[in-house]
Amino acid sequence: MIQFDNVTKSYAGGQTALQNVSFGLARGELAFLIGHSGAGKSTLLRMIMPSEHPSSGKVIVSGHDLKELPNRKLPQYRRSLGVVFQDHQLLSDRSVFDNVALPLRVSGFNHRDMGRRVRAALDKVGLLGKERLMPDTLSAGERQRVGVARAVVNRPSVLLADEPTGNLDPELSGEIMDLFEQFSQMGACVLIASHDLALVARYKHRLLSLDHGRLLSSDFVSGSSDV
Amino acid sequence: MGACSVAILSVVALMSSSSTKRKNGSSSQGGLKHYLTEHKQTAGESIDQLWIKPFGSLMTIFLIGLSLALPLALIVILESGDKLVSSWQGQSKISLFLKMDVSEQRGAALSQNLASHNGVRSLRYLSKQQSLEEFENNSGVAVPLELLEENPLPAVIVVEAGTAHPGDLERLRDELALLPEVEHTQLDLLWVKRLQAILQAGQYLAQALVLILALVVLFVVMNTMKLLIEHRRSEIEITLLVGGSHAYIRRPFLYLGLWYGLFGGLLAVTAVESLLWWIEGPVASISALYESNFYVQSMSLSLFFKALLFSSLLGVIAAWLEVSLHLRRALAK
Ligand SMILES: Nc1ncnc2c1ncn2[C@@H]1O[C@H](COP(=O)(O)OP(=O)(O)O)[C@@H](O)[C@H]1O
Ligand SMILES: [Mg+2]
């Protein structure tokens, strides 16, 4: 479902964030993307959204070569994606409800279905009842969970999460991870970037390990003695 | 107001309905009713947007109003000028001098025929005898007929044309000149032509002004939009990332442009109407001095709607251009 072929990304400044990265991820598969800070995790996820394109190599998602995807097809493609951003990316002048509803609104949901789906998503992240609050009045962990709710509200077939548990205590992190696992069991392809090895070690999933832009291995399974 | 706003709203709807929206109908969960609700909501929300930066909005509307008031005032004055020309309609006379051998009966019959002619508003038939009397009255000279063998003056038909347009008048004159009874014709057009030329020049000036000031308005609205887009930059970025189409991003700005244009247009109309009200009295007294029935009228309803439609369209187009520029820049990155 997600396919990277020899992807290299160099920034204008000269840094090479990704170097000859190749891997594939199937439907229903959940993988952790691990590596030190600056290893290229966020860059790799941005290639899938896509908010950036590779300097060389190909990224193919759900059969689309993303570099060839015409602009007018981009919105439709992105609606099949759910993204939890590292820095939440919430709209500060919109309520929790409106933030979570945004992916539904842009794809033309009617109000009744929108309300039902938004409440279901907020319920899953434990924020039911906070629809009317503004993001600024929430704690960092709550804001992060709003970001998670927004990513899953559209029931995406590809779910990307960039440090989704960075601000959460272990118990809440576990609940969010359970949610991601549910999604992959329902057939979604889930890719979670994290540098929290303790969290990763608690689950048995595939590991994509990045080091200075190079993919060390894509065959490890977390929770085993290797990690 | 009704027809006007419906027209404008459908333009906005058209401009903001994207190809993606139509092509990917499968993803759309609501249909037309939902689509309209969304538009209504966006229109309402964008009105609220005006109050987020009230000073900037006021300045924009004020600038639009001022820019459009100038050409609009000129257009209204030209409209009045046209009416002035029309008010002189009755004074556009064509004199038909009949041949000397045309009998009095034939002359009278001809004038009766002509009275039902399309281009003729009214006419007066002067027989040879009446011509002579008129001449004597006007000149104060008694013509000693007994010294002449016969009355040397021809019979005349004085035609008041139904039009004041020089071209039409000349055409009518040429047509009447072909009548077998008519010896020659006389039409005095100089002053009408002069006035028409002035009005024509005024119209060119108005067109040029409309063009230049439309560009000014476009620039002003685009600049305001640029600031608003900057203000909502991150929102636009996120909306694009979760699958918002360009049309979706554009929509609220198009409505904002619509409101700017509409309110600016209303301001311009109000300013011009106030000006007309202001000069109404003085113009009436000058008009009375010249024994003219010319008076200042407020602008026609059609001009009123045209002005609002024009300014609203300008606002929408400016918004469309600026958002498109921004989206193109965001894509190029
Ligand atoms: N927009 C950018 N311009 C220039 N360099 C960047 C940009 N984004 C990331 N980088 C660089 O690319 C490398 C990888 O960054 P990133 O993908 O954010 O790492 P991670 O998410 O693993 O911490 C870093 O060296 C970073 O400085
Ligand atoms: Mg990162």
Largest sheet of chain A: 6 strands, mixed
How far do the termini of chain B sit from each other?
43 Å
User: Structurally, how many domains make up the residues of chain B?
Assistant: 2
Quaternary organization: heterodimer
Average pLDDT over all residues of chain B: 82
Radius of gyration computed on alpha carbons of chain B: 31 Å
CATH topology (level 3) name of the largest domain in chain A: Rossmann fold
Question: In which range does the helix fraction of chain A lie?
Answer: 25-40%
Instruction: Please indicate the percent range of residues of chain B in DSSP E strands (runs of 2 or more).
Output: 5-15%
Number of strands of chain A: 10
**In which order are the strands of the major sheet of chain B placed?**
2-3-1-4
Structural class of chain B comes to alpha+beta
Helix content of chain B: over 70%
| CATH class term of the largest domain in chain A | Alpha Beta
Structural class of chain A: alpha/beta
Beta-strand level of the residues of chain A, as a percent range? 25-35%
What is the rounded distance between the termini of chain A? 26 Å
